[in-house]
Give the backbone structure.
Amino acid sequence: MRSGKLVIAQGGGPTAVINQSLVGAVLEARRFPRIERVYGARFGVRGIVNEDFIDLSAESRAALEAIAATPSAALGSTRDKPDLDYCRNIFASLKAHGACWFLYIGGNDTANTVHIVSEEAAKEGYDLRCIHIPKTIDNDLLENDHTPGFPSAARFVVQAFMGADLDNRALPGVYVGVVMGRDSGFLTAASAAARIFNGDGPHLIYLPERAFDRAKFLSEVKSVYDRLGRCVIAVSEGVRDADGMALSVRLAGKAVKDAHGNVQLSGSGALADLLCEEIRSELGITRVRGDTFGYLQRSFAGCASDVDRREARDVGEFAVKQAIRGGGDGSVAIRRSGDYAVDYGLVKLVNVAGKTRAMTDDFIAASGSDVTPAFKKYLRPLLGSDLPQAARLRGGAVAKVLKR
Amino acid sequence: MRSGKLVIAQGGGPTAVINQSLVGAVLEARRFPRIERVYGARFGVRGIVNEDFIDLSAESRAALEAIAATPSAALGSTRDKPDLDYCRNIFASLKAHGACWFLYIGGNDTANTVHIVSEEAAKEGYDLRCIHIPKTIDNDLLENDHTPGFPSAARFVVQAFMGADLDNRALPGVYVGVVMGRDSGFLTAASAAARIFNGDGPHLIYLPERAFDRAKFLSEVKSVYDRLGRCVIAVSEGVRDADGMALSVRLAGKAVKDAHGNVQLSGSGALADLLCEEIRSELGITRVRGDTFGYLQRSFAGCASDVDRREARDVGEFAVKQAIRGGGDGSVAIRRSGDYAVDYGLVKLVNVAGKTRAMTDDFIAASGSDVTPAFKKYLRPLLGSDLPQAARLRGGAVAKVLKR
């Protein structure tokens, strides 16, 4: 039986629980004498190419547990999207360091990198077991019921909208909250779980899966405002018009692009400001406020779903078990069974790599500006326990006595 | 001994714990047979003028406790800043409903309203006990060591910057987080408590108490970025230049004003976007992101400081005790004793009404872009227990093997 090093890395946008997966993998790996050392690559695959490794073999269990409870990627991450040459350099470094196992935690771009490295190793006949561990707040990986990181981000969005709706109820007006999600509306849709009583917001939810129509939007906002005297709106940063162009891009003029050629949607309040200005000028409503949840929703300290924590830990541990038992390379996937349990499987890397899962029609209301009960049922168990509950005064109205 | 109704209202911006003060007052009031009914005015003093009262006398204790744990103002709030005529209408309504006690929870504008109503009652020789109960996330009331609402908002800011700094560490660049606070920098300054290890952000903190100098700002950002390869910045929405004009106003061109004549600073991402654009264009740094914490910081569900919850409850209860025992009208104030305990007193309304407390020099570092250890010592006990702790990997570097 071959022995050697295990190399693990974290890629893409951080989440509240990606370190759980790291620690799950590291602790599990340390159980196997065949795994001589556990190396963590700093700043994703860039760290592999640069041989920027730290040895996690000796890190104490208590220290690792503290890391697991810390949001963001403890090893550092990268937005690099490696091409074939880059992947060859990754493979060369892994080989030079005697790696027999390569685990990479991330989204669909990360899965793609794992896939290319896996193929390079196979071409050379080098025995490198490559496993992709899922992570993304966007919940946009195929083959998965949901992905680690999404439930905690969703919980943040729920707590944010619960508070924003209470605030808006106290000081009525229109509130627009812009939520992350380039191509998939899951995270924005999660805002629906903030509703407890009838009349609670968000009253309107706009997803990238449906073309954003300005006239329809204004008409829907007006309708809610006329009925309730207020309106709370959840909007995905990725909403796009019928031509498929993101609103935030159309308004930005010059767009900032990342290494993947993706336009930067986050880290700017422009979309919320634009929508607020439209509502103010077109509907004549005075009190209109917009917030962009930005980086808080993926990294806020102290808001993780316990279900998410457990599952993120599990997928890291499961990845090592799969790696050590041999067999084909693959991507760990979460499946749901019953109501509510999960099990894990290993699926082909090509089924996940570079592909994007969007919300299906059964999750989106016919209006196009809300979710269905099926989505709420899907979401509820993911949010975890001890979700804050908003309460409302019921007290009876007092009769008026003044003659006016 | 006179008996009658007690009327309570909530004014100004909601907080995470203003309902604790409401419930503290209501439960305490129900202990006194002299207080025949407890009326809540909906939407602040506007509800008093409109006789929009609900009877809280019969609300169950469990229901009230659920309200206490809910952020935002359960009675509704108002931004109205009553003039003398308005206050006469308030008084007329209170009198018509047989109110003997008037409690109003809010900030310095609210205290001013209580003061005018108190004077009106005195002029008429009507026995109305008027007490102001402090609340504001800005922490800007005179006579108080700190004000209920601030500790919970500060906790949100700390957890947000803790997460944002971890995120920025994983994907280095410049991050700008804009925090509420028109005239007082306390809430922005609280971000300093997010630092645990050396090198943790926020690395720079800009407060309204110090003139914002664009050149100094850019030079400081460059200096941190050159040293660490990243930079996390906390900026108060109220930062202003040497002429005293708020940056967000100067850039806004047309400014949206509220009923108090205050320019709307919150509910827009413009300041963060402006600062990011400056850093991008002047320093040539590519990855620059800005978030505006907006309404989340005052209403986010599930992020209250337990110390804040207790104190907010206490000031509501204390207000009723003071009201029932007679004596002069006043404003409840929190005083700190020892390390760390508080007691409460009643101070003159004029000492609080319409006045603003800013951070004193001993809390602001000589650089003008950080806080002092004295401020951190002041803040720490307010944040409450079980604050999330960020951990860091220590693992030793692995030697390189590739020749490049």
Observations:
- The mean pLDDT of chain B is 94.
- The radius of gyration of chain B is 23 Å.
